[in-house]
Amino acid sequence: MRNLLLLSNSTMHGTEYLQYAAENVKSFLKKFSVEKVLFIPYALTDYDKYEHKVKQAFSKFGFDLKSIHRYESPIDAISEAQAIYCGGGNTFCLLKALYDFKILKPIRDRVLLDGVPYIGASAGSNVATKSINTTNDMPIVYPPSFVALELLPFNINPHYIDADVNSKHMGETREERIKQYHEVPNTPPVLCLREGSMIQVEGDNILLKGLKSARVFIRDEEPKEYDVGTDLSFLLKH
User: Fold this and answer.
1) Which domain holds residue 122?
2) Number of domains observed in the structure of the chain
3) Is 159 a catalytic site residue?
4) Residue 115 is part of a domain; what is its CATH number?
5) CB contact set of 117 (below 8 Å; sequence gap of 6+)
6) pTM summary value
7) Which of 122, 125, 131, 197 is flagged as catalytic?
8) pLDDT tens per residue, range 139-157
9) Which family does the record claim for this protein (predicted)?
């Protein structure tokens, strides 16, 4: 029953918050007759400021939004949610908070069992997957585990950057980092979303949407490129 819209990023250069994905967000939520969205702000520390920013964007889209930190019981907030939006920031902070507030399983159950629509951007997309092992963020806090919501059986690398062939930088490229991850046995595929790209998931169907193509890394295979509009449902079978 999962219904997901997972964005690589929330803001494109020179545009307002979620502006590039406005039509995707609106059509996704309207499909489920959503009027109110529950916001998860835990990837940043100033929850009030973050809520204000996100609330303005969703208000322009025609939806009311309220942050989970406004509720006395986070678990009750999730049980009543019509839809969930999990914003970007630091993935380790976000996942630690999901564990600390004991809402990892409640969110998973609402999405997978009740079909509550879930939107994630950047860190919010990272935690929707099997684990946060392929995030780009620094581990500034320590969650009990890297295991995330497991709404999908693979990982995502948002903000994916292609190697610059003219660069003299000697550090590992993003591609090299992900291949290093896949040196570990039994690691899942990694869907690399460039800024401006996203996936929409309906049950067992995954469609690549947005502005740019994506790359898929599978252990012991060469990475492959996929254009916008491609069916990526095969990722559910690895």
Assistant:
1) 3-237
2) 1
3) yes
4) 3.40.50.880
5) 3, 4, 5, 28, 29, 31, 32, 34, 83, 84, 111
6) 0.96
7) 122
8) 999 999 999 999 999 999 9
9) Belongs to the peptidase S51 family.
